[in-house]
Amino acid sequence: MKALVTGATGFVGAAVVRALIKTGIEVRVLARRDSDFSNLQQFKIDGAYGDLRDKESLRKALAGCGQLYHVAAHYALWARNPAIFYDVNVTGTKNLLEAARDVGTERIVYCSTIGAIGLPPGGGLGTEETPVSLEQMAGHYKRSKYLAEQEVLKLAMQGLPVVIVNPSAPVGEGDVKPTPTGQMIVEFMKGRMPAYIETGMNIVDVDDVAAGHLLAMQKGRIGERYILGTKNLMLREVFEILSRLTGVKMPSVKLPRELVLPLAYLNLAFSWVTGIPPRIPLEGVKMAKYKMHYDCSKAIRELGMPQTAPEIALEKAVRWFRDHHYA
């Protein structure tokens, strides 16, 4: 069996490749010619050059692959031209899954995001069944991933053998272009975080996320969503763990979101003029309004999703960032 992995040069995608190779599955990766392959240099893999916006390149990449792991996405909290989120995450996903249908791919796992999962309006844990709408999505990344999920679900209803996974906040080894969560860890390690806005999050080891992808391929029900996460934490608790791991003092000042929001708008205006990504991302400040805590039991119950402790996952991230001179 051969599997095609998109987004394999990125954080989660590379972890999926590592997990597949450990199980003996032959891997082909789809990447652009200008991609950074440093996350994959230790592996002997079959490479296919292509782009999610080029349907013919997708059909060629899928030829001979019985499995598809679609992990690629434009993941950022800001872009000067927001159209890229929709071109890659929505249209690109539709192009790829339609190509997989056309060539007869046997089974597909689509990597979405926890941000596309709803949260109860009165508080509590979000589940795969919590109602959610496009209007509740903060920012172009979340909106585009929500819309992409709708396309995936439509194709599943038409018979496409696809399972959706929704990772929470992955941390661990191989975050070469740090994700927003990874960048937060780097900034903490550098002592550049004097204050914070309290919020809730769910930390998960990236290797557990990769295992969740493989388990979804094996056991997931077609057209179903599975939250890939572990323990719900407040941001203060995450900083306490990082402080113990690094010896860096945790931020002592907790700022009210209402105070930071105007600064985020000013920072955004500066970014539009300069093209430099904002240091205070507006979408991040908006998301802090929600305690992003979830019930992860469905993936544990149906897939056997591993549950590495957040302390271990964060320690792996800190060690990797140190070893690779990020902080």
Condensed summary:
The chain is an alpha/beta fold. It is built from eleven helices and twelve strands. Helix 2 (55-62) packs across helix 3, helix 3 (83-103) runs parallel beside helix 4 and helix 7 (235-246) packs across helix 11.
List the helices and strands and how they pair.
Blueprint: E1 2-6, H1 11-22, E2 26-31, E3 46-49, H2 55-62, E4 67-70, H3 83-103, E5 107-111, H4 140-157, E6 162-167, E7 169-171, H5 180-189, E8 195-196, E9 200-205, H6 206-219, E10 225-228, E11 231-234, H7 235-246, E12 253-254, H8 257-274, H9 282-287, H10 297-303, H11 310-323
Parallel strand pairs: 1-2, 1-4, 2-3, 4-5, 5-6, 6-10, 7-9, 8-12
Antiparallel strand pairs: 9-11
Helix pairs in contact: 1-6, 2-3, 3-4, 7-11
What does the model show?
The chain is an alpha/beta fold. The chain has a domain at 2-173 and 206-230 and 293-308: NAD(P)-binding Rossmann-like Domain (Rossmann fold, 3-Layer(aba) Sandwich), CATH 3.40.50.720. The protein is built from 11 helices and 12 strands. The chain has helices at residues 11-22, 55-62, 83-103, 140-157, 180-189, 206-219, 235-246, 257-274, 282-287, 297-303, 310-323; strands at residues 2-6, 26-31, 46-49, 67-70, 107-111, 162-167, 169-171, 195-196, 200-205, 225-228, 231-234, 253-254. Strands 3-2-1-4-5-6-10 form a 7-stranded parallel beta sheet, with helices on both faces. Strands 7-9-11 form a 3-stranded mixed beta sheet. The chain is globular and about 55 Å long. It starts with a strand and ends with a helix.
